[in-house]
Design brief:
Number of domains: 3
Number of strands: 16
Radius of gyration: 29 Å
Bound molecules: adenosine-5'-triphosphate, magnesium ion
Helix content: 25-40%
Structural class: alpha/beta
């Protein structure tokens, strides 16, 4: 009995040995050896990819962010409570990504694409990795279509084209977010999909943006990707990449997209926090060495595709917050060099009531000129240089008592233009209204209007032209170009209007009637 048993066992062992296939398998499951501050170190996973999603036993997910010789560093997408030493971690072999689709329009989502507006599930039509390579040179074409912000001081002097990256930079509370939201409002009916990305913003700021967009019926064509200051640094870090993946989904269908990153300073700070926790060596201003790559690989994904690729575009409005106007700090200089120009907002202008507080001297748009409509280009003319001269002269003549008439006229003209450039929030101007305003301004029609009345008279004249001379606005909208005859017509009509409204002028108007923003 026993002998038979032994031969059976031997034969089994023999067949086992004969059929033994030596497979070297990567270990796909590891163990937590350290956890803290949203960072986990895992031992035992051999071949994780950078950016791969891993899952913990308790369901929490994370992303591989650091690959070292014997261990990997993971940033968590959830809270680290419940994760402990020795816990099992498994690879998913999937790169971090977000669900994308048309159904996301009108919704507020987090950096992982999950709805956070309480309006239920979103049916996705695809899944895109968070990180994608930027379109190559051959797949691009130069910008040639304007992306109108509806803000006179920007559209006239620093025009933005579809596919351009224009930085909005300024100290805190200088109207940066407002420029972005105004631009989104102005895209109504212009076939542009807008994505607002909040990075490390206060939840109240995000709520305000949602509220503004809802009030102006702008949510239908917008998506809000929100990572607030209370979200883990990992989510703040991936939010702009995720939002860009969403934008790419639309761009590759040939659509135009506008994306706002509010703001990249906080993005860099989130990345710095992650990197320091992952024990990467800190460099200048304690940012890790690859911080430039952080923003360049993000903004390079915003482009105007060639017609062969469908001709879609992503226009980016990244926002950077400076400290006491210091544009020469590390992160601002990085992003200035990556983008195609910047709108520089200045606190002193903002507090003096010049809002939007665009600093004409330091702002620039390097490529947008090619996309400006002919009408706008012609009527804006030399306004930028005029203003620069005015600002200089204003300083020089501050204490001078007797000025010659020419200087006085130049000062009056400059002051009138500055006044005309004031524009309250959420009141975008159409292209033809901007052109009309510029034509009237360059013909000096506002130069002898008392300063406090200028905004009011501007409103009255634009209303008058839009009601009594409808064809002028129509021709401008249609042809997007302006002839000398049309200029004459505008000037003539405006002078007529001025005569009409003149009787009202002697009455001292109360300050609150002025359409411009209240003086602080
Ligand atoms: P933060 O640094 O807090 O992000 P910000 O630079 O984004 O601020 P906003 O939040 O856009 O600035 O604006 C600050 C305040 O200024 C808001 O109350 C806004 O309504 C007001 N404001 C912005 N632009 C204008 C404007 N053109 N006219 C009048 N008020 C404005
Ligand atoms: Mg803001």
């Amino acid at each position: 009995m026993g002998a038979i048993d032994a031969t059976e066992i031997i034969s089994i062992i023999k067949s086992e040995i004969e059929n033994f296939d030596k497979v070297v398998e990567d270990r796909e499951v590891g163990e937590v050896i350290f956890v803290g501050d949203g960072i986990v170190t895992v031992y035992g996973i051999d071949h994780a990819m950078y950016g791969e999603v891993v899952q913990f036993e308790n369901g929490v997910k994370g992303m591989v962010q650091d690959i070292r010789e014997n261990e990997i560093g993971i940033i968590l997408f959830g809270r680290d409570i419940g994760i402990h030493e020795g816990m099992k971690v498994a690879r998913t072999k999937k790169k971090a990504g977000i669900p994308v689709g048309d159904a996301f329009l009108g919704r507020v989502i987090n950096a992982l694409g999950e709805p956070i507006d309480g309006k239920g599930e979103i049916k996705e039509s695809g899944y895109r990795p968070v990180e994608n390579p930027a379109p190559g040179i051959v797949d691009r074409q130069p910008v040639d279509t304007p992306l109108e912000t509806g803000i006179l001081s920007i559209d006239s002097m620093f025009p933005i084209g579809r596919g351009q990256r224009e930085l909005i930079i300024g100290d805190r509370q200088t109207g940066k977010t407002s420029i972005a939201t105004d631009t989104i409002l102005n895209q109504k009916g212009k076939d542009v999909i807008c994505i607002y990305t909040a990075i490390g913003q206060k939840a109240s700021t995000v709520a305000r943006v949602v509220d503004i967009l809802q009030k102006h019926d702008a949510m239908d064509y917008s998506i809000i990707v929100s990572s607030t200051a209370s979200d883990p640094a990992s989510l703040q870090y991936i939010a702009p990449y995720a939002a860009t993946s969403m934008a790419e989904y639309f761009m590759h269908q040939g659509k135009d997209v506008l994306i706002v990153y509010d703001d990249l300073s906080k993005h860099a700070v989130a990345y710095r926090a992650i990197s320091l926790l992952l024990e990467r060596p800190p460099g200048r201003e304690a940012y890790p060495g690859d911080v430039f790559y952080l923003h360049s690989r993000l903004l390079e994904r915003c482009a105007r595709l060639s017609d062969k690729e469908g001709g879609g575009s992503i226009t980016a409005l990244p926002i950077i917050e400076t400290q006491s106007g210091d544009v020469s700090a590390y992160i601002p200089t990085n992003v200035i060099s990556i983008t195609d120009g910047q709108i520089y907002l200045e606190s002193s202008l903002f507090y003096s009531g010049q809002r939007p507080a665009v600093n004409v001297g330091l702002s620039v748009s390097r490529v947008g000129g090619a996309a400006q409509t002919k009408a706008m280009k012609k009527s804006a003319g030399s306004i930028r240089i005029d203003l620069a001269q005015y600002r200089e002269m204003e300083v020089f003549t501050q204490f001078a008592s007797d000025l010659d008439d020419e200087t006085k006229a130049q000062l009056a003209h400059g002051a009138a233009v500055m006044e005309l450039l004031k524009q309250p929030v959420s009141s975008p101007m159409s292209m033809h209204q901007q052109v009309m305003t510029l034509v009237m301004a360059t013909h000096g029609l506002f130069d002898d209007v008392p300063k406090a009345n200028i905004k009011k008279v501007q409103g009255q004249l634009l209303d008058y032209l839009d009601t009594s001379y409808v064809q002028i606005g129509m021709e401008l909208d249609e042809k997007k170009a302006i002839t000398d005859e049309l200029v004459d017509q505008i000037v003539k009509a405006a002078k007529e209007g001025l005569e009409r409204f003149r009787p009202e002028e002697p009455k001292k108007e109360a300050a609150k009637d002025v359409a411009g923003p209240a003086q602080p």
